[in-house]
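Re: beginner question about structure tokens

> Can someone show what the tokenized structure looks like for a real chain? I only ever see the sequence side.

Sure, here's an example I had lying around. Input first:
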Amino acid sequence: MAAGYLSDFGTILLFLIGGALFILLGLFTAKQIRPHRPNAEKLATYECGEEAVGNAWVQFNPRFYIIALIFIIFDVELAFMFPWAVVFGNRELIEATNGLWGWFALTEMLVFIGILALGLAYAWVKGHLDWVKPKPIIPQSHSTVPLDLYQRVNDRQYPVKETA
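And the corresponding structure tokens:
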């Protein structure tokens, strides 16, 4: 019985070695066949067809990542909707259950889309989809204490205690 397991693992090992050799042989052959004539244009960094300008270690606006995450969420939603439409749109299955299966499938997808729509509405209300964030509104104080008194307290220099 142990020999059967060894032969199965041996088969998997042979497939892994064969796959690795296939890849390495392809890379080696490509390196031998291709021409090697570097020039300044071939060695330049490619940035979507534009000339590279400035340092690559710049900080990107974090809103790029938020927009990308929202795109991925809705992209995955579509990846779920296509198989759902194929499986749950089966006419024979709907007719066999007297239409109950079709209503169940429709309700299930409406709940799924509703949850994603709530997430999108939340991101929209919070302003995560706005590219230019509005300036924060500074609350105004309606205090009876004069403003110049606050300014005098803020301008006062306090002595720092020396610690031994």
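Each token stands for a local structural state, so reading them left to right follows the chain. Residues 2-33 form the longest helix (32 residues).
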